[in-house]
Each structure stands twice: as C-alpha cells, then as structure tokens.
Amino acid sequence: MTLWLVLILASLWAGAQNALAGGGSFITLPALMVTGMDARAANITSTIALFPAQLVTGAAGRREVESPSGVSFMTLFVISLIGGALGGLILLATPSSFFAVLVPWLVLFATAVFAWGSFLRKPSPPGTVAIPPRTEMAIQFAIAIYGGYFGGGIGFLMMASLTMAGLAVRNAAASKNVLAGVMNASAVAIFVFSHEIYWKQVLVTAVASSVGGYTGAKMLSVVNEKVLRLFIVIVGIALTIGLFWKG
Question: Residue 225, exposed/middle/buried by CB under 10 A (0-12, 13-18, 19+)?
C-alpha cells in the first residue's frame, strides 16, 4: 500500500509539473521503478500513462498552432508520427539490461536540455529564421525518434528548433504540445502490444496525473515558474546521480 501511495502522490506531482513547466517524466520514471519495474518497462508504462494529459494539453492550445515558413504543419505532424513510431520500435528492440545502463545518460541529457531551455537559452526574436525548412524537418524527425525512445526534454528541443525557425514563443509552445502528443501517440500505439506494460500502474498514474494536470493548470497564475523549473533541474540531477549510483 505504501508503494501505491507513493505512486499516486508522484503521479499527482508529475501531472501538475507537466502543466506548469514540464519534466513530469522525471517523477513518474523512478516512482514506477520503485513498484518493481525495470527501467525500460517503467519508461513504456510512463509514456502510456501520461499520454491522456498530453492530448488535453494539445487540444487546449490548438488555436495557437502554427508552422514555420516553408514547412506545413501537416508535414511536421507526419514526421513526428513516423519518428515517434521508429523511436518506439527501437526501444522495444533494446535489451532491458542495455536500457538500464543507458537510462542514466538519457536522464542526464534531458536534465541538461531542460536546464538550458529554462535558464540559458535566449529565444530568437519573432520572425527571425535561423533554420531553413529542410533542416527544421530533419531536426523534428530526430527529436521525434528520441521522443518515441525516451521523451525527456523533447519540449525544449522543439521550442528551440521552432523558435529558431521563425515562430513566436506562444505559437511554438502550442505547436510543440500538439507534436509531442503526436509522436507519443505513435509510440503508445506500438507499446500497447508490449507484454511489459503494468496496466494497474498505468491506470493509477493516468488518473492521478490528470488530476494533477488540472490542478497545475489552475495554479499557473500563482506559482513562481522559475522556482519550479529550478526544482525540476534539482530533481533531474538527483535522479541522475541515483541511477548512476544504482548502476
């Protein structure tokens, strides 16, 4: 019962964190591993469990969705769908033992990307195009593969590429939310056939994270986002150290 309570609280926290600043998978991944899963099974289960909240987030901001000049949004949609599926297939083909060794490096990378996007990256002025259309498509495909495989940090990777391709921050954020849901949708469609899914944990995490996400959305006007982002980075660093230590 204690482990289930930990999972519920962690999922509530992750849902609120995703709504406020992102990085919720940093919380669900170790919480699911504590319930007895290996790293790969926890990553698969977390991806499926957090997917419903992504759909809600993407739908809520759909009116702000735009695409960079020279690239249609449907093109980015298809690229994300294919890349996410490819990343999911690569994950299922990755031995659990190898993924357990790889996951601390993935968390470290995701934490570094999150820290860079939160505190170091300087947004490009709206309308400034630093990435040509074909390069943007290639970058989106690479991000989609990574997203289907692991997912941590994809939001800031897309924010960086979309703003450098000329989108305003608000439009880039809305487009990023939809594209993240798309790439995870294709990965989820593949993962549901995996025997490594822990459906009880999926249900608990999905419900709790949805409640947390709704609560987080209501808290947007009162929570200090910079403090929250700093806390997420600290959690990521602690998780990275713990995973390396365990390994």
Answer: exposed
